[in-house]
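Take one protein record:
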Amino acid sequence: MAKRVFNWLLVSFGSFWLLATHTKAFSAIPKPPTTLIDNNNKNNNIMSLATPQPPENQEQRTNNAILRVHGPDANGIVAAFSQLLYGHGCGIVDSEQHTDHTANLFFQRIHFDYTKMHTDRISLTSGIKEVCERFQMKSELNWGDKRKKVCVMISKYDHCLWELLLRHRAGELDCEIALIISNHPDLQNIADSFNIPFHVFKITKDNKQEVEAQELALLKEQEIDLVVLARYMQIITDDFCVAFPVINIHHSFLPAFIGGKPYHRAHERGVKLIGATAHYATADLDEGPIIEQDITRISHRDQVDDLIRKGRLLEKSVLVTAVKAHIEDRIIVYNNKCVIFDG
């Protein structure tokens, strides 16, 4: 009898020990994060939790600069700039070059690290100027210590705006979208959801010049570096094009179907391809230097609405690609054309 009691106590103690051990082990397993949903918030969306956010510490910039030069082709240009940068303690991270043999022009983009530069910016800038004068080159130097400030101008179509804002939020566009300007209030809710200032300038035939002057004053006050026309359905003046670099998205494969309603005219013409074109805006309507283009096939079965639907997919993709190339200093414009480096 005593032996049975002893065995029973031994088994009970063993079971208790196993239970306590496993309970402690399970409690050590990390629990999945709890999703808190505010029932009073109409914008709750589980998918939004997975939306990529811009990298932290965006204001911290690396000591990487971009130098772009172009001018008459000649021997020794690459060596001259390489020796100059080396002499100032800079290291070349990447270099791309191109020669237009027809125009006898040379183009180069140099990405260099100036962390160990033992001189100063004024000295290096002066050296670049001397080399450019020797070879009759033009140059643009971006020290890379601040993001370009971008203004997006829109009307009522929202597909290009959404694409720009979402790509920016995902960290694909290394810039600051400082403000949005529109001639209609319809899309303010989109700007508000991204906490971007939204300005409405109502334009008529009678006040166009006055209103555009107000827009230009705002852009200069905000120190804007680039204006993006994301289906902005107004023709901007020559003064606007001169004041800032302006990228426009045109809903056709330029130079075909310049102007309004290109999808309707493409359907009437019976074309088998439609496209979208991002270009720098100039005084000549839809004839500025082309940055990016893309196309898609259509058939006799496609109606105007089908062309519009397919075209919008092209428009937003082409526009983002062009904006990205500009803010990364990968473009050199010459003779109403663009050299686009890979970067």
Summary: DSSP finds nine helices and 13 strands in the chain. The first strand starts at residue 64 and ends at 72. Confidence is low (pLDDT under 50) at residues 15-60.
